[in-house]
């Protein structure tokens, strides 16, 4: 990036010290947060292209992979971020003992996060607790998660290394800790355990995933941290065997076994197929004899991280792919998928539901017409109105509801990045809302609870799954108009009305009690390690 603000000075005993000005750290942070919002690693894009080229991939696998590649191409324009949930900013720094700063490193990093999120078309997602029950958006996406260590990176005392990440709520919520025992440490039981837990991940975090499994750890929190770093491929250089020194290592054989197991689930890249995961990292850590933590984490389709370093030669940021179009195939979406059913949302709700009732789960749809957008806080406020004896708002009776929250709208655009949020967070409202005549057609990402399936069967409702991940493409190509209907003070959590054209979706739960995910997430528990 630059060598301004970086200097080398001589210290006692002729030792060489690297001096770094705080504005250098701020500029590096701001640039990194910009890049990871718009660009992906070439290796990740190559994995998406491999799905399209794989003759064993399902049509839905290939459709999702193509949609994500098209989304990456739009995001690389630098205007619309790849995902509407532009995430919590996470920065880890390792400062060599011969690197000198003014001691305000954490503040300098936070300032860089602030500059990126306030100047770019990113979303503010951080809520400040005012009381135990009341929260308010900070309006800056601060605070960031910042961790700084006094450690010579790779043995170099005059180097400052960083890992920049943006972690959205969907993938962060799929980090899990299980407190197990020695009984888990045999091949058959381990694979049975992992099959059950990995199936339960579902699709709410936008697969295909980069999956990490960590077994062991000197504490529960350390196991979780290692899993997060492993999902970013930050620990790929670990040794591949253990020793009496008690260090962690990667188990490459188990990585491959788990990957092959996930390809038999049938979940696929969101709507059936084999590509539930791009790859798997398995790390075995030392443990206390009375504890055996197991941590699972994923990096989602918005695979946002970048490495950086400050050295005597200057400031360097990992070069991400700025031309993702080179990974796009020449084929068209029609050649990669089954027939598409077009649904006109301008019709009355009863006619929309009657049309949807003709088709089985997994049917791919193209939606055109009005949608109402509402998510967590809006649902809570509408529930309060029902509690007070008020009727269901007419807009939820007349239109399908899309669970989402947009990023900022760039000048000249109809919408900012506007992909779906996790449906499961609204599950507790569905039965009551449908009984009151609302939410009879829902659109979001991820699997739902059995209670939602029962409600849809009872009240004639549907849950449609949208592809999780391509928020920039949806904004540029599918969303034609956006207006606030209610609660403008909630910002991205307001109730919106949007007009969509050729908006992709799949039938996941129908009015007959069928749920696509109910079968593919059910453990088989017959897989053992050979």
Residue ranges: pLDDT <50 for 5 or more in a row? 333-337, 525-530
Strand arrangement across the biggest beta sheet: 7-3-8-14-15
Compute the average pLDDT: 93
The general outline is: globular
Instruction: Give the end-to-end Cα distance, rounded to a whole number of Å.
Output: 50 Å
Strand content: 25-35%
Query: How many strands, what sense, and barrel or not for the largest sheet?
Result: 5 strands, mixed
Give the C-alpha Rg. Answer: 24 Å
Helix- and strand-based class? alpha/beta
Q: Can you offer a commentary on this structure?
A:
- It is a single chain.
- The chain has helices at about 20-40, 40-55, 60-75, 105-120, 170, 185-200, 220-230, 250-260, 350-355, 375-385, 395-400, 425-435, 450-460, 470-480, 515-520, and strands at about 5-10, 15-20, 90-95, 100, 125-130, 135, 145-150, 160-165, 175-180, 210-215, 250, 275-285, 290-300, 305-310, 315, 340-345, 365-375, 400, 440-445, 460-465, 480-485, 495-510.
- A hairpin with a 5-residue loop joins strand 5 and strand 6.
- It starts with 5 loop residues before the first strand and ends in a 10-residue tail after the last helix.
- Residues about 335 and about 525-530 have low confidence and may be disordered.
- A 5-stranded mixed beta sheet has the order 7-3-8-14-15. Strands 9-13-10-12-11 form a 5-stranded mixed beta sheet, sandwiched between helices.
- The chain is an alpha/beta fold.
